[in-house]
Amino acid sequence: MSTKSDKRPSFEDVHYLLRPAKNVQRKMICEALARLEFLRPLSEYRYIGFGAIYFGDFSLFHRRLGIDKMTTIEGNLSAEERVRFNRPFDCIKVEMGLSTAVLPNLNLEGQPNIIWFDYDGVLKDYVRIDVRALAASAAPCSVIIVTLDARWKALVETVESVEAPNPEEYKALPLPEKITQLTGDNRFLKADLVGDNLTETYRQSMQAEMENGISERNRELTESGNTNPIHFKQLFNFRYQDQAEMMTVGWLIYSDEDTPKVNAAQFHKMDFYCDGENYFRIRAPKLTFHEVRQLNRYLPCANPTSIPVPVSDEYKTDYTKIYRYFPSFAEADI
Question: Is the pTM of this model over 0.90?
């Protein structure tokens, strides 16, 4: 079963660098990743992601974290020349192909990795396959992050675009069965997918694959006599919307002997730390430069609604939660 392949690449429809909520999330994740220094020197890490033609996360992580081992995976084979042309740094290696095919060749066990798979679609079976493979093989102290389209409309449209071997038979199936075939997860047969329940079901589905992958490697460790089991913990559960409603979930993989270092990193003290179904909503209010400057003069502030700037209390509250990461876009001659 496959979905139609004539879809335009998302980077041709959306300029990833001009999405304010996405920009905020990228900076938050970067700040969290800086805490990995408690576990391993950041210079030992490799970053693996989907850079497309903009490489926003690659540039940020190279400049802010000093990571100079980087790999971008690009599944759109027709975009190879453009992807290679737009690499901002020579340390970025380009791997053409789908993530499920490329991952086995990346030697994930050889060094700690930061892996951010920013899929431009909904949850599909290959996403769950990727998550399980990463959990089963990524070196201790690695971080796995997944971003998905969280819209019910996008899920239904994707399900209806499936090219099934028996189209008429597939068309007659109830929607929950179609979703189950798309995701490869039986929990969608009975799950309530209204509102936030859809994103929570996505998270639970990926969480289950994390558990399966970790359990698999711990069985192998036990059989080999290794007494240093592997654990994982969720660090991120973001929701944000620039155009489409999106979700991002991230986990840290670590060994038993790394537990004191993980505790020292104090990930739980991050304002946006979420280790379960509760999520952090990123709202980037539309503010003028003057409004931003005036708001900043009073921050940090326990009661943002008291700030004398003529915008709504909702805008003030939303801005206060993210002001340290708020982007400033301006035209410039390059």
Answer: yes
